[in-house]
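Onboarding guide, step 5: your first structure request.
Type a short instruction followed by the sequence, for example:

Predict the 3D structure of this protein.
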Amino acid sequence: MQYLHTMVRVRDLDASLKFYCDQLGLVEVSRKDVEAGRFTLVFLAAPDDVSRAKEDSAPFLELTYNWDLEDYGEGRNFGHLAFRVDNIYETCAALMNAGVTINRPPRDGHMAFVRSPDNISVELLQKGAALAPEEPWASMENTGHW
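The system replies with structure tokens like these:
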């Protein structure tokens, strides 16, 4: 397993970049505007991790800026932790066998979400290419939210 990133939602992208980059010293390593979803993703890395960031092996801080205004309320602006796993199906099966609810099953062989005992969302991402869809995951419904 490899730690990937922590996502936080931000209301003012410029003010957030000023804080995280100009004041805290993080470095912007990538940015993606998603027109269809009306959001921007900005990935930041600590200065000592920038060279690893180019190889996609550094831990990131992901800033998610939703273009439409939304009141996140306390705690809603924190998004999730993300980990890369060797086999998403095996990981989810082991978690499910241990009593963990799979909130967003890995139907696509690529991504799943679970929650910690404190309701922190945890994203699991398949290492490398997505696995071919397989049961029971392919037809499993979402449970709750993440």
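Each response can be followed by summary notes, for example: Helices lie at 13-23, 50-53, 88-97.
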